[in-house]
Amino acid sequence: MELKLWGGRFTKETDQLVHNFNASISFDQKFYKQDIDGSIAHVTMLAKQKILTDSERDTIVAALTDIKKELTDGTLEIPGSYEDIHSFVEATLIERTGETGKKLHTGRSRNDQVALDMKLYTRDEIKECDVLLKDLLEEILTIMTQHTDTFMPGFTHLQKAQPLTLAHHFGAYFEMFKRDRSRLYDIYHRMNTCPLGAGALAGTTYPLDREYTASLLDFDGPTLNSMDSVSDRDYVIELLSALSTVMMHLSRFSEEIIIWNTNEYQFIELDDAYSTGSSIMPQKKNPDIAELVRGKTGRVYGALFSILTTMKGLPLAYNKDMQEDKELTFDAIDTAKGCIKLFTGMIKTMKVNKAAMAKSAMGGFTNATDAADYLVKHGVPFRDAHGIIGQLVLYGIEKNKALDELTLDEYKAISPVFDKDIFEAISLETCVNMRNTIGAPGIEAMKNVISIEREYLDKTPVL
Fold it and tell me: How confident is the model at residue 456, as a pLDDT?
């Protein structure tokens, strides 16, 4: 039995092409659990308000519970002929309960029903994303803890700048993903009001207890304007924006992993399980996972721009355009979750080449700033020290020597202020570990930060 929720007004069947174009069953069946949970809460409230009898409630709830179980275990399939998940669930309920099932939709519109389903689904997915981000942060912190003394070059403009550690570099991404979690937290709590009971746009004459319905579904309370209730998709836009930022962070990280994995750098080696080969070049081991994460970022961005464009011209209240909030949103959520999970596994299994990182940090005059600081500490004004070290770097380039490879006589030829302690002052250990203000790469500073991050993960439960 196929049920159209609006068929009474019409005298002829919908054209098949129109039906196909209008239907959402191919993608909104994804939230059948949320649709059924919302319906169970709705009839529970209706019975409390004496709009339904307790017997009617129990019959409907039992049937809906069976339908959800059968859909979950695969014993009940959803035909593509239905317009949407709502009509399928209600039609199946009526098949099983007869006249009683026809009372399910009392005091409810498909508009507030779909608004509820989308909120419930989005809320559930935010929780799952938060779990995955916390797992990623745990892995990043493990790597940070293991590599407080793994020296590497830091870059600006992709040019070697100053030495730091792998722990410090990964710590930058820890901060990014920590902010991503906070954005999800904000969205979750801002969206957590229940639209059910708003009706089509103007509420209902039935004596609904919207506060009770909201409490049954773990909302903080009901929405306060029925028009906004059915036309609000801000939370979808906010989630897609947050996921776009997550993907941007993953993409930046992936770009660095790809660079570090090259033969020219050899800072890391990706595990075979997260690499692929070439169909023609047998020596190749390609960082395909990192590249795909980088590439799929645009896919999530596209979903964000799609819903922004869809919503920008819509008058109040509900318009069918808003059906477009689902398909790309579902895809973006699945894409982001998959990328976070795969990226976590990729960095967990990669090997770090500490020697290659340290060797690279020694080149490129990354200790030039420390050489200038040495002069300042010996009474030379910084601007003069900057010029002196510039001359020293130019000399090193001409002689193909790093600063630590120059002799003391070569130093003194440019400035007599230099003495034999210059070599200790520009060593990798000194350059890094003398930087111990909070947030710097020095080992003591990093141990402090790692302790702070550990406490954050221990005290910040998932949503």
Answer: 98
Return the DSSP state at 435: -
Region of residue 165 (left: phi > 0; alpha: psi -120 to 50; beta: else): beta
2: region left, alpha or beta (phi > 0 left; psi from -120 to 50 alpha): beta
> Is the predicted pLDDT of residue 306 greater than 70, yes or no?
yes
Query: What tokens does 289 get?
Result: 């996972």
How far apart are the C-alpha atoms of 313 and 326, rounded to whole Å? Answer: 18
Where does residue 240 rank: exposed (0-12), middle (13-18), buried (19+ CB within 10 A)?
buried
Q: HSE-up of 405 (CA within 13 Å, CB side)?
A: 12
Name all domains of the chain by residue range, CATH numbers in brackets: 7-106 (1.10.275.10), 114-159+169-359 (1.20.200.10), 361-459 (1.10.40.30)
Q: Each residue of 390-418: b (16+ CB within 10 Å) or e?
A: eebbebbeeeeebbeebeeebbeebbebb
Is residue 39 annotated as part of the catalytic site, yes or no?
Answer: no
Cis peptide before 317 (omega within 30 of 0): yes
Whether 317 has a pLDDT exceeding 80, the answer reads yes
Query: If you average pLDDT over residues 66-91, what whole number do you get?
Result: 93
80-95 per-position pLDDT tens digit: 888 899 999 999 999 9
pLDDT band per the 50, 70, 90 thresholds, residue 6: very low
Catalytic residue among 26, 55, 81, 278: 278
Mean pLDDT of all residues in 324-350: 96
Q: Report residue 324 as tokens.
A: 């477009």
Length of the chain: 463
Apex 62 CA angle, 59 and 68, nearest 5? 135
Residues 6+ apart with CB under 8 A from 148: 165, 167, 443, 446, 447, 450
User: Which pTM was predicted?
Assistant: 0.91
Point out the catalytic residue in the list 157, 231, 360, 378. Answer: 157
User: Looking at residue 86, what is its pLDDT?
Assistant: 92
Whether the per-residue pLDDT at 17 is higher than 80: the answer is no
105 as an active site residue: the answer is no
pLDDT band at residue 1 under the 50/70/90 scheme: very low
CB atoms within 10 A of CB 1: 6
- SS (HEC) of 73-105: HCCCCCCCCCCCHHHHHHHHHHHHHHHHHHHCC
